[in-house]
Design brief:
By secondary structure, the protein is an alpha+beta fold. Helix content is 30%, strand content 27%. The N and C termini lie far apart (37 Å). It comes from Streptomyces spongiae.
């Protein structure tokens, strides 16, 4: 995952290596770094969040696709005559004074978790039968057309970006919000902050029996919508 800021924008990217692909962790790292750098540069230049998010997914896809190489380069040292294609999923989020934006490819997700009231899912999984991925980043996938959405919250809260290793154990916003609010209360009501809350989410998934990579990134958002 990767986190950055530019001006009034807070930006995050979370990627999850496709388990059946080689160098999956490398693919996820490259995609997150490239996606974040593009987002920060574009938003800093005044590009609209929606446009920047699409561009970041495409840039990340091309960077992961460039990792393809002889299987001999992989840890197993398979047949050097064949080629391998590292792959990963992708979700990016932008938080600013006017709202939040998200873009996703695959089954990594974005959620809006307000300080008050119910949360909402901001992405839809690219999956087919038996939850098989229908879209991802990598040389063996088409250029992505990310699911881009925006939301203007009435209350302050958190924009959550996460992998399926988390949401499979906390599949609804009620459960996610409960863990975040409990961790946010902190010891003695002192508050924990986004990093503590993210660790609490991952800890919940692991304690529930999670074995897949569980990643959570929370972007704090202060609502600019007048009360009433």
């Amino acid at each position: 995952m990767a986190l950055g800021t530019t001006g009034a924008w807070t930006v995050g990217v979370v990627c999850d290596g496709v388990s059946m692909s080689p160098r999956a962790e490398r693919a996820a790292r490259v995609a997150a770094d490239v996606g974040l750098n593009h987002l920060v540069a574009q938003l800093g230049s005044g590009v609209l969040p929606e446009v920047a998010l699409v561009g970041s997914a495409v840039r990340a896809h091309r960077a992961v696709a460039a990792l393809v190489g002889p299987a001999g380069a992989a840890a197993d040292h398979h047949d050097p005559a064949s080629t391998v294609a590292p792959a990963c999923t992708y979700v990016a989020g932008v938080a600013g004074p006017e709202g939040v934006w998200s873009a996703a490819v695959g089954d990594s997700r974005a959620y809006w978790l307000p300080d008050e009231g119910p949360g909402t899912a901001l992405t839809e999984d690219d999956t087919g039968d038996l939850d098989a991925l229908t879209a991802w980043l990598g040389a063996d996938a088409d250029e992505p057309v990310p699911d881009v959405r925006s939301y203007r919250p009435r209350y302050s809260g958190r924009l959550l970006l996460c992998t399926d290793g988390l949401w499979r154990y906390l599949p609804d916003t009620e459960g996610l919000s409960a863990v975040v609010r409990r961790a946010g209360a902190g010891t003695g009501g002192g508050g924990g902050g986004p990093a503590v809350e993210a660790r609490a989410l991952v800890g919940y998934a692991l304690e529930a029996g999670g074995h897949d990579n569980a990643t959570a990134l929370l972007l704090p958002v202060v609502s600019s919508v007048p009360p009433g």
